[in-house]
Amino acid sequence: MYASAKNITLVNVCQETIWPGIITQGGNYHGDGFTLKPGQSASYNPPDGWSGRIWARTGCNFNNSTSSCKTGSCGSSINCTSPGSLPVTIAEFTLGANVDYYDVSLVDGFNVPVLVRPFNGKGNCSNAGCDGDLRQNCPSDLAVKDNGKVIGCRSACDAFNSDEYCCKGAFGDLTSCLASNYSKSFKQVCPAASSYAFDDRTSIITCSATDYIVGFCASRNQTVCSYHDNKLFCNESKGSKAFPQSWWQLLLMLALPPILNIQALF
User: Fold this and answer.
1) Which cysteine residues pair off into disulfide bonds (predicted)?
2) Can you list the alpha helix ranges (DSSP code H) found in 46-194?
3) From 20, 150, 230, 261, which residue has the greatest number of CB atoms within 10 Å?
4) Which residues of 71-88 are buried (b: 16+ CB within 10 A; e: fewer)?
């Protein structure tokens, strides 16, 4: 972890344990990772100017030499050494001094719902992501199953690897690569997420904020919180609210560092 003026809180609202993966964009793929049980959260402090990806790994086993995950695998250890294997729902960030860019991408497919919420922001600081579950109605030719259960939904590009679906070759520009029926079905369930390569123009958010929350399996009407600058910020239906130190100290007493269990807030 690094000293930073910004804070990203990762919250697991899923019914299962997840293993968030974090990768810094670039050829070296410097990565981090950790375990989040249901109801737990953890804070990630990216370096200034950070650009990277955050996602959830599911069904992981790091207890032996053949460590692996059912979705989102990024190497053989809990710390990621490569991008997450497809299909996977990705939260993407580019953090700047004056403006941040963020979105949730389904270009690499879908494995769990992901929402990104900003706090203390200026600009177009809206929520990004998907609180619907594409696994429930995933087309059969895109479905990834484990013991008969759909655990992920591939993108059309990943499944068919065609220029048309992957926006490459003769379809490598904004005017020629249009939304397919597959990406339209993704967009219908997840209107605030990028559903194909040139969908970014409607889904990338520009904002300047000090705190972001990445909620796995969170819904838009749930209260989510971020701890930063000695305050606990919670996003409620009527807006953001900062709680005094005495309020969150009780939460810290119940938690095992560095993970803060805030299950009671949901």
Assistant:
1) 14-217, 60-69, 74-80, 125-207, 130-190, 138-153, 157-166, 167-177
2) 156-160, 163-166, 181-189
3) 20
4) bbbbbeebebeebbbbbb
> Are 116 and 131 in contact, with CB atoms under 8 Å apart?
no
Measured distance CA(188)–CA(191) in Å, rounded: 6
Q: What is the pLDDT of residues 54-86, one digit of tens each?
A: 999 999 998 766 678 999 999 888 999 888 899
- Judge whether 192 and 129 are in contact, CB under 8 Å: yes
Neighbours of 47 (CB within 10 A): 13
> Are 87 and 111 in contact, with CB atoms under 8 Å apart?
yes
3-state secondary structure of 141: coil
pLDDT tens digits for 148-188?
999 999 999 999 999 999 999 999 999 999 999 999 999 99
**Both tokens assigned to 92:** 């993407």
Strand partners, 52: 24, 93
- At a CB cut-off of 8 Å and minimum separation 6, what does 8 contact? 43, 44, 45, 46, 54, 93, 211, 212, 213, 214
